Amino acid sequence: MNALDERARYFKALGDPVRLRIVSLLLHGKCTCICDIAEHVGKDQSVVFRHVQILAQAGIVKTKKDGKYLRCCIADPVPMRKLLQLR
User: Fold this and answer.
1) Structural domain total, the chain
2) Hey, CA dihedral for 46, 41, 72, 62, is it positive or negative?
3) Burial level of 72, CB count in 10 A (0-12/13-18/19+)?
4) Which of 35, 47, 67, 68 could disulfide-pair with 43, CB 3.0 to 4.6 Å?
5) pTM of the model
6) C-alpha distances in angstroms, 24 versus 17, 60, 68, 76, 80?
7) What is the CATH number of the domain that holds 80?
8) Tens digits of per-residue pLDDT, 6-27?
9) What tens digit of pLDDT does each residue of 56-75 get?
10) Secondary structure class of 47 (helix, strand, coil)
């Protein structure tokens, strides 16, 4: 995969309003479990899990298992904050 393909996958992952809400939530806090993200975005945990998978595959978020919980964090918050400030 070349650099342009990677960028396209990155921006495609951000092209969904639910995923943008997830990213925004994670930028304003620390690592958050899927159950809390689901509550904040108003979606079922299974839906949020799928969105998080897409974001993780694009390298936007990283996940880690914490007991029975899956916690999510922004992989690199500085460029993501700058990107979301663009108008």
Assistant:
1) 1
2) positive
3) buried
4) 47
5) 0.88
6) 10, 12, 24, 13, 9
7) 1.10.10.10
8) 888 888 999 999 999 999 999 9
9) 999 999 999 999 999 999 99
10) helix
